[in-house]
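This section describes the prediction task in plain terms. A model, or a person checking by hand, is given the sequence of a single protein chain and must write out its three-dimensional structure as a string of tokens. No templates, partner chains or ligands are provided. The sample shown here is typical of the held-out split.
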Amino acid sequence: MKIRWLLVLGALLVAGCVIDLPDRQLGDGGGGGERGSGEGGGGEVSPDCGNGVLDPGEQCDTAIAAGEPGACPTTCDDGLSCTADTLEQAGTCQARCSASPITSCTSGDGCCPTGCTPSSDDDCSADCGNGKIDLKEACDTAITAGSPGACPTACDDGSSCTQDELLSAGTCSAQCRFVPVTTCTNDDGCCPQGCNSGNDNDCSASCGNGVLDSGEKCDTAIAAGQPGACPTSCSDGQACTTDTLLSAGTCNAQCGFTAITQCKGGDNCCPSGCNNNTDSDCSQTCGNGVVESGEQCDTAIAQGQSGACPQSCNDNKPCTQDNLLNPGTCGAQCNFATIQQCKNNDGCCPSGCNANNDNDCSATCGNGAVESGEKCDTAIPQGQSGACPQSCNDNNACTNDSLIGGGCSAECRNTAINSCTNNDGCCPAGCNANTDNDCTPVCGNGAVEQGETCDPPSTCPTSCSAPTCRTSTLQGSASQCTAKCVETNAGNGSACSGGKCYNGSCCTGCWTGSSCANGSSTSACGTGGNSCNACTSGACKTASCTNGSCTTQQASNGSNCSGGKCYGGSCCTGCWDGSSCQAGTSLSACGSAGGACGACPPSGTCSSSTCTSGSCQTNNQPNGTSCNSGMGKCYSGSCCSGCWNGSSCRPGFLDSACGRNGEPCDICNSNECCSEFIGCVIDKGSNCLL
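The expected answer:
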């Protein structure tokens, strides 16, 4: 009866009985983590999102008005140029801003990270380190620490509820970032919003009892305006501080007021060291040591430095009148009026004057006047008196026309051509068409020229001869310089010494019937102009042509061939027994494609073996066939000694299938059990074998 109880218990388990476990607190997957933080985009969705209340598990609530504590952000900007600001899970009660430090050199992002230079990032200032804040700078590394505009080297706002980070250290983009702590962490001195004494030992266990206890900065139950009340918003009324409410909703709530040090327009703050060039919130001020919009210079900049206001004007140019305008102001500038009148002995040669009308001018080529020492002037138009020649052509092909000198010393020179030169249009005496393509060929001048085959008397042939397999005939006339020997090939296939003529040469290889082959290839083998033979190779034999004769070499027995093994020069596609090739179709030697011969397993009581297409096949007797002299039934190739249920063999000693020797299975009644040797019997202990 134990078996039946076990079956009942198994059925109950399969039916899916479960035990209800207590709910677990939602968190970020780690011990003491911030509830409902949603980090990584996997935060739990609060069922109360949008009810206007910051419930447990929410970062914010979408129904809280913008600007109020607990309102969800819709845009993100931490005011720092060296952070990439991202709004995560927008439109949900897990929405939050994240900002990662910019570390790569990327032009146009307003940040110059550590290690970047003006050549790798155009946001880096080329003036960094000059002791003043210029465009593209948040500070300057040369300004002494503690002075306005000095670059920070360390960051600490004195609050345990912020993580202090120095961005772009060592550059003129260096700035501090103070990130509010949001994770519930023991012993960090901070109790962030949403944490409690159960997951952060920095949180007061008595928070909310209306009393300012030890370890609390305030108590959430103390009414607003009363001593010890927790702040719900922060404002110090100063435009040049960033006001932050830290650990809102906890007894660690506190206000953080971080001084704005970055020069950035639009924040209504002009930090110390900034000016109108670097921060549009700063007003333009004459005398602050910076040349700003609307100023020509600044009176506080020392003389000799860039941007200093001029006190006198002299450009050391004789052709200007030097004037100082608006002296003593940030609009001071020099004006240099150009002298335009041609006048002797004033030290100036104005534009349009020359040595002919102003003795202060020196003779100058290209001023439109032919002056002392010049042959012409390049500014005088062609065709007018005094114009400089640009080409010198006397229309005589046999003279070299040269432009001598240059500029205002240019003149023409024409000299006779005596050398044989192609493409100059001239054929001087002693030249011919071979040495000068400007000459016309002339028969009898001693030179064989274009269109001539000879030039008498020495170069014109009187008789002709030809080598083997060619004939030669004399054509043309010596008197007309056209005499020449013309060779033609003997007919292909005609006999020659040791072979056959082919394309004018004697072929000593073999003759294909239309062409000559060298007679050493397997496709064309032979010598002496005899007909070519083809040397035939096979899968297991290799033919070659040696000295014009075909030879054949068999591959070694057992070597590989396509689809089998070589044996006696042929490719065996049956099986290989190690020394010879077999058909591969017998039970003792079964195989194909030259593989090793194998023996198929012997036939059994309920199965038989065959070798088909080189593979052993086992064929089972139909299930239910009698076996073992009628003491069993075949099932899946084996003889079943249990009982037969009509389609499969059963062990034969189960209450649901009782019997043996292939007999039909019985099903025992509820008051019976199956004895392996007796069959279904009434449960009497020893009569049954469990």
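For orientation: The first strand starts at residue 83 and ends at 88.
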